[in-house]
Structures are given as structure tokens and as C-alpha cells.
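Need residues for this backbone.
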């Protein structure tokens, strides 16, 4: 599956348009990560626990979006975007969406 954040795939022609596809995941903060983040805030630096959590969330949302596109018959998703929202205290949704197409 070709995945890109631009409106086309360089060197390829869009021959079929399937519509919008999306994938999302809702993740809650982990107590251990929160505790370590609190300590890290005192001394500065990267909050690696949160970096890993966000990377896992992005990948999960992308995988779900890609699967939805595959089931529609697409071989590419163009114009991919990400959004986040808070859904509960300590939990957030990461949402990926794009346009499923067939390219050749």
C-alpha cells in the first residue's frame, strides 16, 4: 500500500477514486509513564514514554486506515492527515484519514 501526505503519487496516475478512509485508536496514559514524565519535567529532556505511545498510536491508526483502503480495492492512500482529540480524562484519540485510490 502506497501511503503519502500529498494529493498524488509522483510518477503514478490515479485511475480510480474510492473515497475517504480512516483509522483511529484511543489510548490512555500509563501511570508509570506519567510518573517518569513528571520526573523528566523537573530536569528537562525527551519524554520517551510518550514518544513511544504516540508512535504506537500513529502506526495503529495508519494500519487500520490502510486495511480499510485495501478492503475497498485501493492500492494507495493519498492526502493523509492526522488529528487528535481528548475523549476522556487521561485518554486521547489519534485519528488518521486520507483518500483511497488506485494508481498505476
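Answer:
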Amino acid at each position: 500500500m502506497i501511503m503519502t501526505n500529498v494529493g498524488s503519487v509522483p510518477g503514478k496516475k490515479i485511475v480510480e477514486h474510492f473515497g475517504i478512509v480512516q483509522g483511529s485508536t484511543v489510548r490512555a496514559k500509563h501511570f508509570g509513564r506519567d510518573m517518569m514524565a513528571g520526573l523528566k519535567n523537573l530536569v528537562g529532556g525527551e519524554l520517551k514514554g510518550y514518544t513511544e505511545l504516540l508512535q504506537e498510536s500513529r502506526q495503529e491508526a495508519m494500519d487500520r486506515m490502510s486495511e480499510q483502503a485495501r478492503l475497498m480495492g485501493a492500492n494507495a492512500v493519498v492526502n493523509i492527515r492526522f488529528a487528535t482529540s481528548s475523549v476522556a480524562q487521561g485518554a486521547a484519540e489519534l485519528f488518521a484519514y486520507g483518500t483511497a485510490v488506485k494508481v498505476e
